[in-house]
Amino acid sequence: MNTSNTSASLNVSVWRGTSDGGEFRSYQVPVQSNQTVLDVVTWIQQRIDNTLSYRFACRVGMCGSCAMTVNGEPRWTCRTHVNNVTENATLEIAPLRNLPVIKDLTTNMDPFFDKWIKAGGVHEPSALRNDPMVPVNPESKARKVASEGVECINCAVCYSACDTVAANPDYLGPAALQRAWTLVNDVKHNGKNTVLSAVSESGGCHNCHSHGSCTRYCPVELNPMKAVAGLKKSTVLSLLRS
Amino acid sequence: MIKPGRSNPLWLAFVLHRLSGVVLALFLPLHFYVLSLALTSPAALDNFLAFSDLFVVKVAETLLVLLLAVHLFGGLRLMAMEWLPWTDRQKSLAAASVALGAGVACMFFLKVI
Questions:
Q1: Which residues of chain B make contact with A216, given a CB cutoff of 8 A?
Q2: What fold is seen in the domain A5-107?
Q3: pTM of the prediction?
Q4: Architecture of domain B11-112
């Protein structure tokens, strides 16, 4: 963080509380010339109130652990510059939507990752250790489709943005379904039909209403809406063929 | 507690599609009831047809046609999204669906006034 102080300050409202409820509390944070939202939260925790709980790790947009709701929109806070999101020098920072709050800005990610498993997201190898390695052509259509989704950093921004998750807590959500679509197109994954069955069940891909919020907010610019559309088509074709 | 992020044209397209669907579902039973009057009560049907000549009723009919057309083209967009090769121009297609629906409604209005 650039530490060149200015006299200006930000009015920052931070949600404080637990799963039992909470409220926004206001803090004054000095404006820095180059400042991310995570810098602001860290400044509050280190300089004003060390009981503030939040989660972060890499600070460079790789680990996906620092996502929060900033001025009403889910964002990765370590790569979100304050200048790009402040409105009248004010910031409102809250935990991610659609996940249970543990404390303050920290959410319980268990439902998010449990749904990865439920969507068949665990890799099932198609060969054993001593089998000859099967070459995969990176230019093949299936590999290109699979590669589109592998950069997901599991930040849960798409899950938080999704109104279908909000309305139906059993819905697997964009990230889990995108992982499923990646595996369906991965020639080294042995459980394609298992994945298609998993995402066809209640709460699966056919619950998606194509709001597109997942794609709109994905910080690494992936396209879960496209992945879900692919799953919808593949599950129906699989049903017709069977 | 936390505001949802909805600054997305496709979210608005979803709301429009859902609302137009609900309104059409309410309209269709009424529509079939009016048609049934031709068999059960021709005089009542004549009265209704006279009522439908009022300008305000024609405006209401135009709104119904708008909803029908927007629902039709929006539904085609959704089917194309899921069954045809993917295109990233979903927002443009959603806007085109509304524009086509509005065009159909305008043509209807010009024909009935």
A1: 5, 7-8, 10
A2: Ubiquitin-like (UB roll) (3.10.20)
A3: 0.89
A4: Up-down Bundle (1.20)
